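User: Can you predict the 3D structure for this chain?
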Amino acid sequence: MPGAHGSTSKSKTSLTNPETRRIPQPLNVSVVVPLHNEEPNVERLLAVVPTSLARNLLVDQFEIICVDDGSTDRTGEFLLRGRSDRLVVLSIPGRSGQSAALARGSAAARYDIIGLLDGDLQTTPDDFALLLPWLERGFGCAHGIRTNRQDPLVRRASSLVARVVRQLVLGDDFQDISCPLSVFRKACLTGVPLFDPFHRYLPYLIEMRGYAVKQVPVRHFPRIAGRTKYGIANRLGPGLRSLIAVRRLARKKSG
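Assistant: Here is the predicted structure, written as structure tokens:
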């Protein structure tokens, strides 16, 4: 089965990223995928992600940790059907939010390097090949910048407003801080406050811990199944509260 959104072959994937030649040894990676009511995407996810990681020249051993965050559809059932040595399924009984799911999955990771990926596959695991080389070049985290965003206009506009406000408050230079595609060393999470929704500020929090973060353009695709879980209504209030909390952390750190 082809990879997500027309994935390339293993040899072609390696050629699209000249930085792969700098890595002496393939890396062991734990990919954490939070899911909430993603039943229409689970089958494709379980076919695409292992295939992509298996042909990635930068990856040696890998595991995929799917965290079912209180789904009320058959997401959990479908995940359990695919469970294997390389597919770990964790369940959170009631919906706790994406931050809690990512924290749970990251804590369970057996490997030193963690990759983050959304269950809707609007970003492709093939682009881990663009992120992983930067860890070998001294960066603690490589974080995606979604190019040619395929979200609806309202969502793109709300993201732009949120970025302007956040940069005014925090003074950061992240172009796409909430991009779901990211890789980092597990040690980067040590001491990071895993409040909800910390995932929206993860690269900033990692940088605040003293690690270098590299921003890397990655591809973005339309959602082809299921429904988005986030909109203006459920992002505005939590976003402002979390922004204030992060600002307090930054001031405490600098003080």
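Residues 43 and 78 are 7 Å apart (CA to CA). The two ends are 53 Å apart (CA to CA).
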